[in-house]
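Dear Dr. H.,

I hope your travels went smoothly. While you were away I took the liberty of generating a structure for the chain from your last submission, since the lab meeting agenda had it listed for discussion. I wanted you to have the full record in hand beforehand rather than looking at slides cold. The sequence, exactly as received, is reproduced here:
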Amino acid sequence: MINYFFISSPLHFFIATNLAISHKNDTNIAIFMSKNKKTALQYSHASNKFKNIFQHTYDLTIGNIGKKMVDRKQSFNNIKTIILSYPPDSIYTGNDRRVEFQYAMFKASRINKNVKGIYMDDGAISYLGHKSLAKLSHRYIDPLLKKIFYGFWWKPPLTTGSSNWISQAYLAYPKYAHPLLKGKKIKSINREIFSNEEFNQLNHFLTESYTELNDIDFSNIKAVLCLPFESFYLNNNEFIIKIKSYLDTQYKANEVAFKPHPRSKNTTLLNEIFTESIALPRTLGMELLLSKLDKQTCVFGDFSSTLLTTKWLRPELETQAFELKLSYQPELKSLFQNLNIKFITI
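The corresponding predicted structure, in token form, is as follows:
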């Protein structure tokens, strides 16, 4: 069997590696399409290093900006070439809204009519649904425009993972899957693989490439703050100041580590506010740092996917969510309560 893994984020890489290890007798192909060229290079380098997990690696991330249609045409040509060389039996993705994934499914289905599209858990959206689910533009206008522009192979997903290209889904919490995903064949991701030797070797190789980690004594860290994308606070730093004030009542500044969102680019504000705290690498997924944390460490965050992942992979760690009007979502709060993630009102 030949399996493709479309990888756009650290979480996708984390889960794709798990699934590739569970299919070790197959040919596994990693295809990186990140919005961050540096991140894609770091992760694709690790993928290339471990041929026992991913036999082939392609980095299709485009470095140019402002040439979207030219870049997309180039991506389509690259995907077509790869598919002709290695006709896939399964194509995994953490985002079936990506045009490149759908194009790959379209081209692959012409060679192998039984090719499967498989969704990999992409965090909170797997359980809450797309934020624009109820909007007319999301349901009708955008899908129509894409069909006209790309062709009738475009299959609009009302929420991520629900398109007609997808027949199966691997989730951390199958019980809480969004209703639109429950029509798929849902499987639970095998958490035990994250502690096996192959995964640990790749994890170690990747984390070792971040030399700044060498100076961090994780045993002294008592709290880790996982931050949302910078657009939430760059123009309204009250969000960060309130959180900092709360943490100051509970911990010494040097006992706190903060983790910027992987896609954030401007960390100046964070460095100014958390002057005595420990900065964790932004492009390294929190999923790959969890194994380094002491069991007494508390992980804090907004209503984010990171807290879901933490509770899933390290259930013994205390996880707490800051409850703010800025991020309040009743459905997500209900999910967090079901998973015993605590709330802090500030």
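Two observations you may find useful: Residues 211-345 form a domain with the Rossmann fold fold (CATH 3.40.50.11110). DSSP finds eleven helices and 13 strands in the chain.

With kind regards,
E. W.
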